[in-house]
Specification:
Layout (H helix, E strand, L loop, with lengths): L3 E2 L11 E7 L7 E2 L3 E8 L2 E5 L2 E5 L4 E4 L5 E5 L6 E8 L15 H9 L4 E3 L1 H14 L4 H17 L3 E3 L11 H17 L6 H6 L5 H12 L3 H19 L5 H7 L5 H12 L3 H10 L1
Parallel strand pairs: 1-3
Antiparallel strand pairs: 2-9, 4-7, 4-9, 5-6, 5-8, 7-10, 10-11
């Protein structure tokens, strides 16, 4: 799957977009765009992919995503309707120097941090959810004022998790960014099945040998190591979110075909065996 570049049209009477979606399931592909995005999930659940991060999401999920950071929400299993509110704006939507003014420096720092993807929780998320739902019914003028107040609330909050701590995509040159986007998009869609080097290398018009050299040069890891890390991140989420699944079931659902190999990779990446990892979380 190739990552989609999403072109976002501004409304003629607004400098940013403020949209509500009610769908049977989230249908946006793995995509990126130059706009900053604040996404609130009002109902639905599944896995959220932001950069190289994989996490569970459910109702109340609030995430700020920086420019050109690939992302998508994937429903899993039977779920209620996918209801979300999405706010999108360019960093300079109020002028190139607007956020450089002293009163807005905390927001400027927030927008810089959003390059890694930020997940807000606790009282901050509760307040933001109420404000976003209120603004949905308000005029364009009051939405703009409300957005600035909302960004200030998020900028001052300590109730935040950084999602893609490596800032991997934010640091890539344009050429590498476009190539790696294709690779990670394909990985995000297909990591639960076998991925052949011949298939992945064709995405960026390379031979398998050239692809392996290129990938390691840019990422400092082999493709197989990166794929295993991605699978283990997914397995970690399953271990914590679904206590009914056995280790064997999680192994196969995460794309591993051999339980002993899965256990070795899990211990190597997390420092714990799968059941230890689950039990540590339950004790905490």
């Amino acid at each position: 799957m190739k990552p989609s570049f999403e072109h976002i049209d501004s409304l003629p009477d607004s400098s940013f977009t403020f949209r509500e979606f009610v769908l049977p399931a989230f249908d946006a592909p793995y995509h990126f765009h130059p706009e900053i995005e604040l996404t609130l999930i009002l109902s639905s659940r599944g896995k959220r992919f932001v950069g190289t991060n994989v996490s569970d999401f459910e109702a109340g999920d609030l995430v700020l995503i920086g420019p050109n950071l690939p992302h998508y929400w994937k429903n899993e299993g039977n779920t209620e309707e996918a209801h979300s509110i999405v706010i999108q704006f360019r960093v300079d939507f109020l002028g190139a120097d607007f956020f450089r003014k002293p009163e807005f420096l905390s927001i400027a720092r927030l927008l810089q941090r959003s390059k890694s993807g930020l997940h807000f929780y606790g009282k901050t998320a509760e307040r933001a959810i109420k404000e976003i739902q209120y603004l949905l019914k308000d005029s364009h003028f009051h939405r703009l004022l409300g957005l600035l107040d909302l960004l200030h609330t998020l900028a001052e909050s300590q109730e935040v998790n950084v999602l893609d701590t490596s800032q991997f995509f934010a640091q890539l040159p344009k050429t590498d960014y476009e190539r790696l986007n294709k690779i990670y998009a394909f990985m995000a869609e297909n990591f639960r099945q076998e991925i052949r080097l011949e298939t992945i290398s064709e995405l960026i018009n390379m031979t398998p040998q050239s692809f392996c050299r290129y990938f390691k040069k840019v990422t400092k890891k082999t493709f197989i190591d990166s794929l295993n890390e991605y699978r283990i991140r997914y397995a970690s989420q399953l271990l914590l979110s679904d206590g009914d699944l056995t280790v064997a079931e999680i192994c196969y659902q995460s794309g591993f075909g051999n339980i002993s190999h899965f256990n070795r990779q899990f211990r190597q990446i997390t420092g714990l065996a799968p059941l230890q990892y689950r039990n540590e979380f339950l004790r905490a």
